[in-house]
Each structure stands twice: as C-alpha cells, then as structure tokens.
Specification:
By secondary structure, this protein is of the alpha+beta class. It has a 7-stranded mixed beta sheet, with helices on both faces. Strands 23-22-26-25-24-27-28 form a 7-stranded mixed beta sheet. Strands 7-2-1-11-20-19 form a 6-stranded mixed beta sheet. The radius of gyration is 25 Å and the shape is globular. 27% of the residues lie in helices and 25% in strands.
Length: 551
Amino acid sequence: MTPQPPDVLVVGAGPTGLTAAHLLGSRGVRVLLVERNTTTSNDAKAISLDDESLRTLQSADGLDEAVYPILVPGTGTRYFGIGGRMLFHARGTSDQRYGHPFKNPFAQPDLERVLREELRRLPTVDVRFDTRLTDVVTQHPDLVRVMLRTGGEDGPVEKLDVSYVLGCDGGRSTLRDLLSIPMQGRSFPDVWLVVDTLQDTHDQRFGMHHGDPDRPVVIVAGRDGRCRYEFRLKPGECDAGTLPPFSLVRELLAPYREITSEQVERAVAYSFHALLADRLRDGRCFLLGDAAHMMPPFAGQGLNSGVRDAANLCWKISEVLAGRANDRLLDTYDTERRPHARAMIDLSVRLGRIVMTTSRPRAVLRDLLIRTALYTPPGRRYLTEMRYRPDTRATSGAVVGIDGPGHGLVGTMLPQPRVLRGQDHHVIRLDDVLGQGWSLLGVGVTDADWTAVARTGLPDAASVDVLLDDRAPRDRAGRAEIADADGQLDALFTGLAGHFVLVRPDRLVAAVFTPDKAEYVDAKLRHFTSPFPVLTLPDPEIQPDSPGVRR
C-alpha cells in the first residue's frame, strides 16, 4: 500500500519541533518531521522545563511520564545579592497549580532523545534526519508546495505538497528566510560564558542567580553530576562565538569547584538577542520557537515559549484538518501568542538588567528594594511566587468574555487540581478526565441546564459535572462527575455554581457562562469553529436585568 502523504511538514527536530510532532501525531495528523542534522542535538542549550510545558507533554498521550526520569523536579530559583547574601527564593505557587512542579532542570540532549524515541509509537509521524527545506515554491488556497533535499548539496531533491508547514528550525530559520519575514528587536553586546560540567557536587533542586555586580553568575544543577554555570564576561576576556580557552574556564570555576578538561561537557561564549518576528503566520506557513522569537535566558523561558507555541497552534491545525473549524481559527495563533511572547521577551530583558547588573549602585538599590518588599505580604508573594512572570491570558482570539462571575478565568489556562472521579473515587489529574479535545464543565448545574446547552452548536466537548460541597461523584451516561480531592477544585470554582466553563484543547478557558448565554457563546465561537467562515453576529444589547456582556 502506498503511504499517504503528510498533512503537515515540521521543519526542525529540536524540542519545539518534536513537541509539535507529538501533539499533531497524537491527534492522528499525518506529519513529516525533517531535521538538517544527522541526529538530535548533543548541545545542552535549554536547561529548564516549567509546569506549563510538562502539562502540554501530558496532553500528548501522557508524554510527561516518559520525560520525568530525565528531570530534576525543581523548586524554583534562589536569587543572591551583593556579597552572596540570599535575597529570596522564587518557588511559584506551592500547590502545583498546573499539576506539575514549577521549574525543572534537565539536559537538552536527554530531552530530545526521549521525545525522538517516543515518536516511534505514533504511526502517523515520519522522521527524516539529514533532510533540509530548500524552497517554498508556492502557496495555494489548499496546499503549500516545498522542496526538500536529503544529504549534502548533491543529494536528491524532493517536491512535496502539504497542507501546512511549521518552521521550528531555530534562530537561523530557513523557513523564515524563505518567506522574507524580518525580526524586530535588538541584540546585546554583553558576552556570557556557558560551561556545562560533569562530576559536579552541586545537588540543589533550585537554580542560583548570583547578582554580584563584580561577576554575575548563574548556577543550575542537573541530574547525574551535571551542572550548568553561566558567567558574565568582562571586556577582553573572550569574544562571542569564539572557543573559550580552558584557562579562563578553570579560573571562573575556581570559586565553585576544581575542573579538568575532561569534565567540561560544553563551553561556549555567546551574546543574546531580544527579537520577535513581524508575523507568525504567512499563508499556510507558521513560525514557532526561536524561529518566531528569541529572548535572553534570565527567565528560563526560551524553550518553554516554543512549547507554548506548539500547544496553541497544533490543536487548531488538527481541528481545521478534521473539518471542525475554519481558517480563521489559525489566524488566532498570531493574535494569541504574539502579546505573550513580547511580554516574555521584555521580562527576560528586565531580569537581566536588574538581577545581572554590573553597576554597583544599581545592585545596592536592587537589594534594598527587594528586602523592603519582602517585609510586606503583597511584595513577598509577588517575588516568591514569581507573579512578575506574564500569564498566558488571551484577551482576543478564540475566547468569549462575558461580564459576571468567572470573567477573570476567560483566556487563562485552567488550573489542574487532583480530583475524585466516579463512584470508586479515583484520585486523578483533571486533564486525565478532560481528554485531548474541547471540554465543558458544568459547575453545580442541573440536567435541564445540560439539555439547554446541548441544543446549541457549541464545539463537541467532553461533558463533566463538577460537584461542590463535598458531594460524592458518580459517572452518568454521557457525563463524567468529579469532586474536590484536596480543596483546590472547590477553591477554583467558588462562586460559579450554575455556570458552565468551556475549555479549549490547550486548556485555555474559552468562556464562562450561564445556560441562557450558551447561544451567544456559540454564535461568537462559530466565527472560528464552523467548518466554513460565518458572519460575526453583533453583541446583543445589554438589558438592565441581565448579566452584562462585554462589548
């Protein structure tokens, strides 16, 4: 039997491309993943996976379980000021809000190896190494034609027609260049030395940012004796892009450990960039990860931002290919991801200027302000829970805001508490109840409410009853029932009795509404979820005796 051609070409088998292939393949989409190198990378570049990324991997048929053995389940970051005095420990929230530890060190070669190996269980995903994209020949309303070359410059060339192309091919993206998409932002002259070491004695489960202006340093311990050191270099010590001399490596590591050349896994001098592509979509081609945006490393969000790109886009492509949505849904990728990527770039730049400053007066002021803030409960929460990190709220796109209880949830990622399910009261993660598609949670609603909502054309969704007040769950025909296991579910839905919560496949809350507003939510979402584009209905007039609708 002749194999069917792929629906989606993913260019680049780094963490973002591998994640995209998993998210699409686990939904049955035919994928061809190509990588110009002959194997996955041996460079330990990214070193931290956050809770959102692990949740995304969980959504790909439980891929998180394969990744956990290579992680150090982390406890955040400790920040130190002048003289090595600890300022604060940024742990995130203590309740594993998204169902996973907040910040988790790892080695990128290990992550890529695991993600590559796990692709073998997805029959619709084909992987080709030593294969590169050479041209985007033309884009048509229903396909894009590309050229691929296998091997060296004299290797065979293949013409391929696919529905979509995902450029996950890094900061020097071939796809971005072929589409002539510029990036806006700036590059920084500061040079940093990154050293990945072996046989290290550091065993902390938190990153360490030493903000001494004489020599800012970052230390992140990994598994099995690995440890990452990052040093801000002084003028003349080493140029970006040149091989650092071992004498410099040994000198900088001397305060922390003795080192031999055999214990240096990688040493590179680099400068960083803060850049965002002018557009993330060009017809049937999309940019993800470093191809779309580059940021300084100080927030640890470069790789995680790429995973967020894949989480946002891949379910939308799957819905359109399956005939459950139209092309307008794909436009929301740029609409929803651009503001968050911009905010994360800006945060990374600010952290570098403040935490890793080489100005002693600025460092003195920084330490004073932080210690003062820690004396107040709001300041302490802001710092220790990393509330300065931008959330993933979507204020436009495939979301529907309605004034009233639950309005603040719309456009945010739904937390993932552990819940009780069914009459056997199994304690499981919320997403394991919701499944991969849309889900509709009824919070303390009646059978009549479910019937009323069923008459609308809302997206086909897993139906889940959320029981409040410590009632015992039992599954009904066509609906799962869940109840609170540890206080988090009740806290999440306090004040929402009688409401429905519509959750997208990427776990963003699309709408919170009462049964009488179901048709309005349906009409708004049909703009995206109808197989064919429909006219957008105007918002209804707000009646004095009805809940307000945000205009």
